[in-house]
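Reviewers of the previous submission asked for a worked example of the structure-prediction workflow described in the proposal, so we include one complete record here. The input consisted solely of the amino acid sequence. No template or homolog information was supplied to the procedure at any stage.
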Amino acid sequence: SKRILENPGKRLAETALFVMECYRPDAFLVGTGVLAVIAKVRLIHALSRLFIRKYSPDWNPAWGKPINQEDMLATNLTFSLLVCRGMERSGVRVSPDEREGMLRYWGLIGYYLGIDPSFLPKSSKQAFELERLIRKRHMKASPAGKKLMQSLLSYYRQEMLRPELSPFLEAILAHYLGPEIGGVLGIRTTRPIPD
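From that input alone, the workflow returned the following structure tokens.
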């Protein structure tokens, strides 16, 4: 839809609101708000698939179905496994029980989003292996990935609450993404992050 390129702030805010609704205390125990939000995301995914199939002549069928099970699994792991990894890179210890709990919780959300339960990892070890396999299959530089990263960097620079961190933005992202992903996205890491 190009929304992440044309209006990254709004698109990021929508994702943030989705995550916040998922983390609302007792989200799945009281009311139906989180289920309505998840249903909205499922509808957006379905409409996107339909739109691409009918109106996107540049979609290459060799790429497979858009927003497929593997795509959704990768996103699910971003909100579970990779969040834990990011916390640890920030110096926050994540216990094995917390990691497993995060995977189970996002597994439930993934189920409601339409991920086949048989594909969801049952343990941290399975999540780690699944993320590694998906990364290995898809980790390659592309003009689209670099364009997306530049759009996000531009947005982050404009909206930073602490503008003095702007010169270190790429180094901060490289720290959290790691050198392999940072390199694929064209992130320059010439500046060290100050203590």
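Residues 9 and 143 are 21 Å apart (CA to CA). We consider this example representative of the routine output the project will generate in years two and three.
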